[in-house]
Amino acid sequence: MKDFTLCVVMLSVLTPAYAENTEEGKMVFNPADPTAAASHIEATGEYNKGPDVKAPLFRLTYDVDWGEGKYSFTTEIPYGSADYSDGMSATGLGDIRLRYFHRLFSASDPDKSVQTIVGSLDVFAPTGNASEGLGLGTWLIAPTVIFDIPLSERWSVFPGPKLKFSTGKTLGRSSPFPPGKIPIPGRESEDYIFAFELEAYFTYMDPGGWWFYVDPIIEWDLLPEPDEDNYEATVKTQIGKMWGRWGLGAEGTFFVAGEKTQDYQLRAIFFYYF
Questions:
Q1: Which domain holds residue 12?
Q2: For 4-33, what is each residue's pLDDT tens digit?
Q3: Do the Cβ atoms of 80 and 177 come closer than 8 Å?
Q4: I need a labelling partner for 214 at 20 to 30 A (CA). Which of 59, 87, 146, 156 fits?
Q5: Is 0.85 surpassed by the pTM of this model?
């Protein structure tokens, strides 16, 4: 717990004060839009379940934007435990995520087929204990481009191609989530991560503050391992409601890694925008 407290203190001290104020009570951001940025805090309670692990986690996310939402910087700190079917358990800090967001294009014509294009860069630092399944044990870097394509007044689709690669070997793990022991059954060979991921948020945004989205994700390993299924499929859905500067959301995610493992995640999220 001392490590987590230290990270929270460092975050509050080191994050630049670029937040831009808005009118009190105004809905400043819709969490269903991945091409928008606004300074906010997220507190997330999370439960992960896999064939050999149960993992309750807490995530604290701090995002600060500047340039009227053209740029933002995000820090996410996970802390929790993982309990395995063989009796092994671990508690501690996970891999901290750092994210830089840059809005590359905004259409001046509302009838344009593409309204916004953003680029982002996620960096996962190896702060979690990899041998206990709390992290990758290496740096993970993931650049992404996301397109905002309106389908109607309230529905939009946000396709987002992503490249993922690690700077070191991960003993077969491909993501900081879901947690799992190293080596994972069926993924026992040491390897670097080099993968291509494609997701597409199908989003409903209501002027009254409600949002809903379904986000299918497919990831292909560009360096597949011998006798290894080289894809992972994920379906994520979220629903929530904003009340002025704060909001609540609920999220469910189901994972399939090839045909070998199935995992799911449940999350409750508190948002506050400033």
A1: 2-273
A2: 444 443 443 333 333 333 444 344 568 889
A3: no
A4: 59
A5: no
Q: How many domains does the chain have?
A: 1
Token duo for residue 166: 């690690």
Dihedral over alpha carbons 45, 272, 213, 165 (to 10 degrees): -70
CA atoms within 13 A on the CB side of 54: 4
Which token pair is 9?
Answer: 């203190």
Give the domain CATH number at 15. 2.40.160.40
Angstrom distance (rounded) from CA 192 to CA 196: 13
Cα 76 to Cα 33: distance, rounded to the nearest angstrom: 18
Helix (H, G, I), strand (E, B), or coil: what is residue 220?
strand
Give the Cα separation of 125 and 25 in Å (integer).
Answer: 36
What does the pLDDT look like over 39-81, one tens digit per residue?
A: 999 999 999 887 777 889 999 999 999 998 999 999 999 999 8
